[in-house]
Amino acid sequence: MKGRITKRLFLYILLVVLGFTALILLSNTLLLQPLYNATLKSTMLGAMDQIAAIDYTQETEEWLTDLEELNRGKSFDVVIRTDGEVLFSTSNEMGLYPRKGMGRPDGPGLNMMPFNPNKAIHWHMSETMEDGTTIGTLRMPGAGTELMVCAREVDGATVMLTQPVAPIRQSVMRANILLAGCAVVALIIFSVFAFRMSRRFTKPIRRIQATVGEMAALNFDERCDVKTGDELQSLGEDVNRLGDELQNALETLRKQNAQLEADVEAQKQFISNASHELRTPLSLIKGYADEMNAGFAKGQAQRQAYSKIIAQEADKMNRLLKEMLDLSRMESGRIKMQYETLRVGGQIQAFIEKYEGFIAEHQLDIKLNLTENDTAVFDPMRFEQALANYISNAAKYGDNSGHVEISTAVQNGSIRVSVYNTGAHIPEEKLGSIWDGFFKGDEARTTEESSYGLGLSIVKAIQNVAGQAYGAKNTDGGVVFWFDVQAEPDSQEA
């Protein structure tokens, strides 16, 4: 396959040169003599008309001068005879002799020779015009001569114009030999030219082919540098753009593949952690139920205590399964936010009133630091869900002081809700991992207290659906968790 285009182009150019040369040789062989004969025929007929128009009644010197003037520059010869004798001739063909003197036919200096056309010449082919002029090709068998002859009777004399045909054939032969020699030289020159031109023409194609081959091998660093100023350069530029797009697509696929692998691993870890989280309440439920069925629960009070524990663990399982279902729906995009325009501070205060029992039970000391201009567009149910997870997280991981501060601030077109609680810092390297479901702050511990559960994962999913930011950071004496909601234009910073 390599070099096939170059060879084909080289052969095509040679075939064109050979065909053109053959056409010239064929045209020269077949057309030159007929064209010459047609031109000579037209010239002879015109000259015959001029000879016939000469006044032969005038003095011999005058009409002879007219004849010689008419014949000057012509390639054919003029023969005039009368009564079988040559009166005037410019040729020595066919036994005719040119006139040497300018006297009368019977005067001195005129050589005359009998002329019998029936014996001397034979018509090969002829044509008779309307004015009686006969023109055609004559052959002389003895001499092997072939002539173009034009004859007419003029005032009792026979006028003949003759032109040998053999020289033109010889000229055609010599021209063909010359053309053949030139064709060989031209063929050599054009062969070198065709070879170089074909290589030069196919060089950018080979360059494009090499670049495409590298692209097929997933090497997109190779550039197709073609500078021809034509469609091949445009094709090379298209190949470069295609390579860039393929490289970007490949990089995207690699990143997506890496992310997919990470997601699969995280999903496996999530399922493992979820199984572990569910195993604990299931074990408790089964254990207490078995004891009750076996009759180990003595008395009504103990049975009520066992039933309460079973109910609590069932509630915990129900809450966990609900959170897992919500998380799955949000991550798969199967939920739609129900946006409303509300004041953020009003929603926070309503939340505190609603969860007053939870706050009192966990002995939380909540302080508010709310901005006044805090109108925003958000889903109030998801807002409450995110804030509840942050408060639950503060109750679970805060220190014994129970100090929690909820604040709002307008920034960059959003209203940021921050929940600060005093307590131990989260290791910096784990701040990005706490948003994963059932992430354990201490892998060596398997208790529920060491796991962040699904609360932060749900906040992450809510914010991703809403297209808003979220995060956590360590501060003096504690940790701040925050999330953003879209502010109304009047609430944005000037």
Overview of this protein structure:
This protein has four domains: 1-53 and 166-215, no CATH class; 75-164, 2-Layer Sandwich (Beta-Lactamase), CATH 3.30.450; 232-313; 336-491, 2-Layer Sandwich (Heat Shock Protein 90), CATH 3.30.565.10. Helices cover 53% and strands 18% of the residues. It has ten helices and 13 strands. 21% of the residues are buried. It is rod-shaped and about 170 Å long. Strands 7, 8, 9, 10, 11, 12 and 13 form a seven-stranded mixed β-sheet that branches. Strands 2-1-6-5-4-3 form a six-stranded antiparallel β-sheet. The protein has 494 residues and is an alpha+beta fold. The two termini are 70 Å apart.
Shape: rod-shaped
Radius of gyration, in Å, reads 58 Å
Query: What's the CATH H-level superfamily name of the largest domain?
Result: Histidine kinase-like ATPase, C-terminal domain
Number of strands: 13
What's the CATH topology name of the largest domain?
Answer: Heat Shock Protein 90
Oligomer: single chain
Q: Can you write the helix and strand succession as a string?
A: HHEEHEEEEHHHEHHEEHEEHEE
How many structural domains in the coordinates? 4
What's the level 1 CATH class of the largest domain?
Alpha Beta
Based on the coordinates given, report the CATH architecture of the largest domain.
2-Layer Sandwich
Give a brief description.
The protein is built from 10 helices and 13 strands. It has helices at 4-52, 60-71, 117-120, 166-216, 231-294, 299-331, 344-354, 356-361, 380-397, 455-466, and strands at 77-82, 85-89, 122-128, 134-140, 145-154, 157-164, 340-343, 365-369, 375-378, 403-411, 414-422, 470-475, 478-487.
